[in-house]
């Protein structure tokens, strides 16, 4: 049985949680989302789905690729409320950041959710848009979202090290 991979764009203000910090942490809790549509997008994510990591407010650019490491679970920062979190892990930093102005001016990206649903912090992205952003970022994934392994995988996944609060 094969599951179809989905693609997403997640936003974070770099002064709160940057892609560089995710690279250093190796895994993080993606929490603090307080919009129902964005929450539902988190809940639709499956382990292995790929994420365009977008720096909002400062930089305004797609700067890296991450992967869903753990599917949605109750947000630990919202006890007793109906919000969700996921765990993410870095895949690769883009060789060239893809700035918002470039995205806005590219005819192939006129209907990307980043532009159509600009207020949301978590949006779906088509495979075509995902691949086009990778091309603009001068980045290729070795095998669909996989990095070469340099060590044997452990029996249990490492717990998320950092909490990203929006």
Detailed description of the structure:
By secondary structure, the protein is of the alpha/beta class. Helices cover 22% and strands 31% of the residues. It has helices at residues 19-25, 36-44, 100-105, 113-116, 127-136, and strands spanning 7-12, 28-30, 50-55, 61-74, 84-99, 122-125, 162-164. It has a seven-stranded mixed sheet. It is globular. The termini are far apart.
Give the topology, please:
Elements: E1 7-12, H1 19-25, E2 28-30, H2 36-44, E3 50-55, E4 61-74, E5 84-99, H3 100-105, H4 113-116, E6 122-125, H5 127-136, E7 162-164
Parallel strand pairs: 1-3, 2-7
Antiparallel strand pairs: 1-6, 2-5, 3-4, 4-5
CATH topology: ph1033 like fold
Tell me the strand order in the biggest sheet: 6-1-3-4-5-2-7
- Tally of DSSP helical segments: 5
CATH superfamily: ph1033 like domains
Strand content: 25-35%
Question: Which assembly state applies to the chains in this document?
Answer: single chain
The parts where pLDDT drops under 50 for at least 5 residues are 148-155
Rg on CA atoms, Å = 15 Å
Mind summarizing the main beta sheet?
A: 7 strands, mixed
Structural class: alpha/beta
Average residue-wise pLDDT: 89
Secondary-structure arrangement, i.e. CATH architecture: Roll
CATH class: Alpha Beta
The CA-CA distance between the termini, in Å, is 36 Å
Helix content: 10-25%
Number of domains: 1
Order of helices and strands, N to C? Answer: EHEHEEEHHEHE
How many β strands by DSSP?
7
Morphology call? globular
């Amino acid at each position: 049985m094969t599951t179809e991979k989905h693609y997403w764009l997640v936003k974070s203000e770099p002064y709160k949680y940057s892609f560089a910090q995710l690279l250093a942490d190796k895994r993080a809790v993606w929490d603090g989302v307080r919009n129902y549509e964005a929450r539902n997008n988190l809940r639709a994510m499956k382990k292995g789905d790929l994420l365009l990591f977008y720096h909002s407010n400062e930089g305004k650019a797609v700067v890296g690729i991450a992967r869903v490491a753990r599917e949605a679970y109750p947000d630990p920062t919202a006890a007793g409320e109906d919000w969700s979190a996921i765990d993410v892990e870095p895949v690769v930093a883009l060789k060239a950041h893809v700035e918002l102005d470039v995205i806005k001016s590219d005819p192939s990206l006129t209907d990307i959710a980043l532009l159509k649903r600009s207020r949301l912090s978590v949006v779906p992205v088509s495979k075509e848009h995902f691949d086009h952003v990778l091309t603009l970022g001068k980045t290729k994934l070795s095998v669909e979202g996989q990095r070469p392994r340099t060590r044997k995988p452990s029996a249990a996944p490492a717990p998320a090290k950092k909490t990203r609060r929006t």
